[in-house]
Amino acid sequence: PRANIGVVGLAVMGSNLARNLASREGNTVAVYNRSPERTEALVNEHSEAGFIPATSLQEFAASLQRPRTAIIMVQAGKATDAVIDGLCEVFEPGDIIVDGGNALFTDTIRREATVRERGFHFVGAGISGGEEGALKGPSIMPGGSAESYETLGPILKTIAARAPEDGEPCVTHVGTDGAGHFVKMIHNGIEYADMQLIGEAYDLLRRVGGLEPAQIAEVFSEWNQGPLSSYLIEITAEVLRQVDAETGKPFVDVVLDQAGQKGTGTWTVQSALSLGAPVSGIAEAVFARGVSSHPEQRETVRPTVASRPEPQQVDERFVEDVRKALYASKVVAYAQGFDAILAGGREHGWELNPGEIAKIWRAGCIIRAVFLGRIAEAYGRNPELKSLLADPFFAGEVAEGADAWRRVVATAALSGVPAPAFSASLSYYDSLAADRLPAALIQGQRDFFGAHTYRRIDREGVFHTDWSGDRVERRVDVAPK
Ligand code: NBP
């Protein structure tokens, strides 16, 4: 056996990952795909890679050094289970099976338990960065046992993206069983929020600020030089600069305004809801895609809206205001995302390190940004941080932009331009900052209709007012669930 690593599943992601692995010194890569044509095509097109092709899983297993380490890159779901079963037939105890697909983390928890029973290591690894990342260097979020990471970690370090700040590879052992796929899922949720916030900034600059797409592209390119510098801002400028060859119109004006999704944003929000983690920025981003993709509903409602407001008059300050609103809302989205990560860790018994997670997102993945280095620093300063918004650096940044943020949200509302993620993020910030919340009134309502009881600000204990009788307050012993 000559290969130190194998890849099963040679569609675009698996092929690119295999080529990436083969291009790094010290790796010899075994490759296998259910349909042999894909294997042949890869090996023929990339003879320089020195792949060891296999036409059966037996042959694949025989070509791997022990402990055998194989990365599965097949369609998430049933295909993954089928390949895991197949590998368990031909591997031996102690070997390492890695799922690099986009699995739901609860599936990974289940698979890890089953595979471990059979004596193998199972690692669910979130891999971000799309096709190009797989080929040139992704951000990798492996879960699984610490023991398997001793073998797998050094191999993954050879292919991971490297952070521009310090050259560190963007991979770390995230936590046990499903931790890697969980963190990858939240990454995708944050990506939804980031994209929505950028979309709202564009919409406001255009519809209120009166700028054309090409001008907005310039604005984004300029923003990309500062603290907002990120892959998503960079590609936004590219997309806005694009002109449709057929019509000569801006590309954004010829694309149907119905956003697609593959479901990872929905998973993030569902999981966060179960964890009691309020990820309103991410949720609004998922909802906004949902609203956009029901044209029949939009077409029914649009004519019923009698008068739509004129865009507010804005001055030259507006562009900078939007930048600050975008930045502050982004801080909130990440604060919420990291809260969800930590809540998941508590729920599932993972010792997640938020600073390390921020670090491995600095390159390779879609949300890569200068900003993530700042988040890593914040958790480095205080690993027990209760919210990113409480970190002195981010608190200062958001406070500095707060007036602009408020002007932008108010301007959007008065202009009739939807800005769900901007406004939800601002409300979240104001909620955390408020001296008192109307939750007190809600407790009163709950006690009124359901005798759900409440606590007082001035005394220990649990209380209930007899709303339907004498309206006298009584202390009760146990709060009902
Ligand atoms: P696909 O998701 O299109 O899956 C195609 C691969 O699955 C082929 O190799 C196919 O083999 C194999 N396969 C299927 Br389908 N059913 C199988 C079965 N029952 N047994 C064995 N193999 C089976 O490939 P992809 O687009 O390269 O994505 C691979 C994974 O990476 C997915 O989980 C995807 O969600 C994830 N992904 C991640 C990113 C990212 O940015 N991180 C991007 C895109 C995809 P065949 O050739 O014999 O049909």
From TrEMBL:
Metabolic or biological pathway, per its Swiss-Prot or TrEMBL entry: Carbohydrate degradation; pentose phosphate pathway; D-ribulose 5-phosphate from D-glucose 6-phosphate (oxidative stage): step 3/3
Residues in the signal sequence: none
Highest taxon above the source species: Bacteria
Uppermost EC category: oxidoreductase
InterPro entries: 6-PGluconate_DH-like_C_sf, 6PGD_dom2, 6PGDH_C, 6PGDH_Gnd/GntZ, 6PGDH_NADP-bd, 6PGdom_BS, NAD(P)-bd_dom_sf, Pgluconate_DH
EC number(s) on file: 1.1.1.44
Domain 6-phosphogluconate dehydrogenase C-terminal: 180-468
Catalytic activity: 6-phospho-D-gluconate + NADP(+) = D-ribulose 5-phosphate + CO2 + NADPH
Keywords, ordered alphabetically: Gluconate utilization, NADP, Oxidoreductase, Pentose shunt
Listed GO MF terms: phosphogluconate dehydrogenase (decarboxylating) activity
Pfam family, one: NAD_binding_2
Subunit structure comment from the entry: Homodimer.
Family in the record: Belongs to the 6-phosphogluconate dehydrogenase family.
Entry function: Catalyzes the oxidative decarboxylation of 6-phosphogluconate to ribulose 5-phosphate and CO(2), with concomitant reduction of NADP to NADPH.
Protein's name according to its UniProt entry: 6-phosphogluconate dehydrogenase, decarboxylating
Organism whose genome encodes this protein: Pseudoclavibacter albus
Gene: gndA
